[in-house]
Amino acid sequence: MNYNKVAELYYTRRQNQQRFDYNRDIEVPAMIKLVGKVKNKIILDVACGFGDHVQILSKNGAKKIIGFDISRKLIKYAQQSKIPNTEFLVGNMDSKFPFKDKTFDVVICSLALHYTANLDKLFAQVYRVLKSKGIFVYSTGHPIFNMINSSPQHIIEAVKIGTKKIIYGDYFNESFQKGDLGTLGWMNLRNFTYQTLIKTALKHNFEIVDYVDAKPIPCSRKYDSQKYLLTIKLPSFILFKLRKK
Ligand SMILES: C[S@@+](CC[C@H](N)C(=O)[O-])C[C@H]1O[C@@H](n2cnc3c(N)ncnc32)[C@H](O)[C@@H]1O
User: Fold this and answer.
1) Residue 218 contacts by C-beta under 8 Å, 6 or more apart in sequence?
2) Which atom of ligand 1 is nearest to the CA of 93?
3) Ligand 1 centroid to 17 CA: how many Å?
4) How does pLDDT run across 141-176, given as a tens digit for each residue?
5) DSSP H or E run through 124
6) What local confidence, expressed as pLDDT, does residue 173 receive?
7) Residue 182 has what pLDDT?
8) Predicted confidence band of residue 183 (pLDDT cuts 50, 70, 90)
9) Does the beta carbon of 93 sit less than 6 angstroms from any atom of ligand 1?
C-alpha cells in the first residue's frame, strides 16, 4: 500500500470544495468532536497524512502535536503547512514508535488501522506511549458499510438460487484484499470484525468510553446529494474512543 503514489491527488482533492469528500465531510468532523477538548494536551497522530486533523487540533489549543506517516510526500505537505506547535516525521505504525513510554495525553489514528500488518502490536505501542488514563481515538471502515457497499471482494451477500442460498464474501476474513478507493485507485486493505476491534482493545487494557457511527455534516449535501443520502443511512466509518486503564 503506497500513498506516495497518490499523495498529490489525495492532498488536492481534499481541498476541492466542489466535491463530497468522505474524509473531510464525515471522518474529520467526527474525529475532532470525539477527541473533545485538547487545550494544553500533548497529542500523537498515527498515520497523520498531510496533517488535516493536526491543523484543527493545533487551532483548538493543543500544546504539542507529533504526527508520523509512512508516506514521505504526505509528510512533506504536512511540514510545508507550518502548523504551530507541531512536528512531522516519516514513520511506520507497524514498527516500534520512536517515543518514550507515557509521552502523550491523546493518540489518534484516522482511517489507517485497516492498513496495519499487526493490530496487536499497534495497540501495544499506542498503550505504551500514552500516559495513564490517556485517550486513544481511532476511526476505520464501518463493518456494515464494507459488507454491503464496498469493493466486490468485501461485499457479503446471501443469494437464493432455487432452494439453496449461496453465501458470497466472509465477514471473518481479515486478510488484506484490494479495496476500491475511487479516484485514488485500488489499495490493499483489510476489514476487522467488531469482535477483533473490541477484544483487541480489552486485551490491551483499554476501556471503551465512547463509540460513533459517523454521519456526514449537513452542509455536505450540496456537494453530492446521492453520497450524502447514502452515508446518512449507511454509515461508512466507525470511531472508538478508548482510555488507558
Ligand atoms: C486514508 S489515509 C488517512 C490519513 C490521515 N490520517 C487523514 O485522515 O487525513 C491513510 C494513511 O495511512 C498511511 N499509512 C499506511 N500504512 C502506514 C504505515 N504502515 N505506517 C504509517 N502510516 C501508514 C498512509 O500513508 C496514509 O497517509
Assistant:
1) none
2) 20
3) 22
4) 999 998 888 888 888 988 999 999 999 999 999 999
5) helix 119-129
6) 94
7) 84
8) confident
9) yes
With a 6 Å cutoff on the Cβ, whether 111 touches ligand 1 is yes
* Domain positions in the chain: 7-142+186-244
74 Cβ below 6 A of ligand 1: yes
Cell numbers found for residue 224: 453530492
What kind and span of H or E run contains 199?
Answer: helix 194-203
Full-model pTM: 0.96
Ligand 1: centre distance to CA 152 (Å): 23
Cα 100 from Cα 238, distance rounded (Å): 29
Q: How far is CA 104 from the centre of its chain?
A: 19
How, if at all, do strands 157-161 and 164-168 pair? antiparallel
Question: What CATH superfamily is the domain 7-142+186-244?
Answer: Vaccinia Virus protein VP39 (3.40.50.150)
Q: What is the pLDDT of residues 187-230, one digit of tens each?
A: 999 999 999 999 999 999 999 999 999 999 999 999 899 999 99
* Residue 159: other Cβ atoms inside 10 A: 9
pLDDT of 185 strictly over 90: no
Residue 179 is predicted with a pLDDT of 87
CA of 3 to the centre of ligand 1 (A): 7
Mean pLDDT of 20-39: 97
Q: What distance in Å separates the CA atoms of residue 223 and residue 208, rounded to the nearest whole number?
A: 34
Spatial CB neighbours of 159, under 8 Å, sequence gap ≥ 6: 165, 166, 168
For a substitution probing ligand 1, which of 96, 113, 115, 188 has the most ligand atoms within 8 Å of its CB? Answer: 115
DSSP-based three-state secondary structure for 101: coil
Query: Under a CB-based contact definition with an 8 Å cutoff, are residues 94 and 117 in contact?
Result: yes
